[in-house]
């Protein structure tokens, strides 16, 4: 298991889930959760990136968060809700598992460690969303782009991010010319290399320094909550991490 929630489950809970987990390819643009509609499945990616997109009644869109192999979606399923007010699209292709909502709920009722892990992840995702809102308000476009590229890089296995400028503009809720200008700034500093459909990270450390306080707080929280949880941890160990606010390295 490469999904970090599934790999941390005690063996008995994972064995209960396995018969219900369906392997699935996650192609670019695939909608795993429709907006303002009921959903049938819960997804656990092993690779790729899922974009959580807020959609206004008039159809205007902005990315409010993202997740990959560290998480699951939609988080509404963990609290018994089967209706989504956000859309989840595959931003970078990958693969993973999905489970029908009803067996997911049945297994969740019998899996205390799974419940704790899902709640921890949902909490961290809410932190990520709040910092996205903060960054959208206080940071320059090129800093916001640096943060976004770092977040994508965290969830991919290499340095290449397949993405168009049109999609970046949609995700950051900015105009296409602003994306072009911001990419040129980052490329001019040697942080990235960019062409029409691909961004390559060349100097991650310098990109982090440039992003400054736009990047790092939600990521540090994730490490605090999950960093020392490993596959096969007992329920007592997982619950202790939750009660104590995570495991301090």
3D structure, described in words:
The chain has 249 residues and is of the alpha+beta class. It is built from nine helices and twelve strands. It has helices at 11-17, 101-109, 112-138, 141-154, 165-172, 176-188, 204-211, 217-226, 235-243; strands spanning 22-26, 31-33, 37-38, 41-45, 49-55, 61-67, 83-84, 86-92, 94-100, 160-162, 192-195, 198-201. The strands form four sheets. Strands 2-8-5-6 form a four-stranded antiparallel sheet. It has a three-stranded antiparallel sheet with strand order 1-9-4. It has a three-stranded antiparallel sheet with strand order 10-12-11. Helix 3 packs parallel to helix 9, helix 4 packs across helix 7 (204-211) and helix 5 (165-172) packs across helix 6 (176-188).
SSE order and pairing:
Blueprint: H1 11-17, E1 22-26, E2 31-33, E3 37-38, E4 41-45, E5 49-55, E6 61-67, E7 83-84, E8 86-92, E9 94-100, H2 101-109, H3 112-138, H4 141-154, E10 160-162, H5 165-172, H6 176-188, E11 192-195, E12 198-201, H7 204-211, H8 217-226, H9 235-243
Antiparallel strand pairs: 1-9, 2-8, 3-7, 4-9, 5-6, 5-8, 10-12, 11-12
Helix pairs in contact: 3-8, 3-9, 4-6, 4-7, 5-6
Oligomer: single chain
Strand count: 12
Whole-number average pLDDT? 90
| Biggest β-sheet: strands ordered side by side in the sheet | 2-8-5-6
Order of helices and strands: HEEEEEEEEEHHHEHHEEHHH
Rg from C-alpha positions?
Answer: 18 Å
Shape, per Cα inertia axes: globular
Q: Based on helices, strands and strand pairing, what is the structural class?
A: alpha+beta
Measured distance between first and last alpha carbons: 24 Å
* Biggest beta sheet summary: 4 strands, antiparallel
Low-confidence stretches: 230-235
Strand portion = 15-25%
Give the proportion of residues in helices. Answer: 40-55%
How many distinct helices? 9
